[in-house]
Amino acid sequence: MASPSPPPKRAKAAEKRPVVATSTIKAKKPTKPKKRTKKQIAEDADKRRKELAALSNRLMETRLFHLEKPF
């Protein structure tokens, strides 16, 4: 009796797809971040100030609400 033949080998990934030549990726010189204008800085500061005020107001409201509860 003849020995059973081994299962056929799978094709490797490189053999399945044709090789496509690609250009080498070159390193780029790091760019400096864009400077923010004084107007942008002022707008951001104003936005942060408003958010902080809203948060502190909300905290104070909850604290006062808890303090006013009758025992």
Write the layout of secondary structure elements.
Blueprint: H1 13-16, H2 38-67
Q: What distinguishing features does this structure have?
A:
single chain; elongated; 71 residues; mainly alpha
Give a quick rundown of the structure.
Residues 1-46 are annotated as: Disordered. Residues 26-39 have a biased composition (Basic residues). With 71 residues, the chain is mainly alpha-helical.
Largest sheet: none
Count of discrete alpha- or pi-helical segments spanning 4 or more residues: 2
Radius of gyration: 34 Å
What number is the mean pLDDT? Answer: 78
- The percentage helix is 40-55%
Q: What class, by secondary structure content? A: mainly alpha
Rough shape?
elongated
Portion in strands: under 5%
Helix and strand element order: HH
How many runs of DSSP E, i.e. beta strands? 0
Q: How far from one another are the termini?
A: 96 Å
Low-confidence runs of at least 5 consecutive residues: none
Explain this structure.
With 71 residues, the chain is an all-alpha fold. It has a domain of 36 residues. 48% of the residues lie in helices and 0% in strands. The chain contains 2 helices and no strands. The N and C termini lie far apart (96 Å).
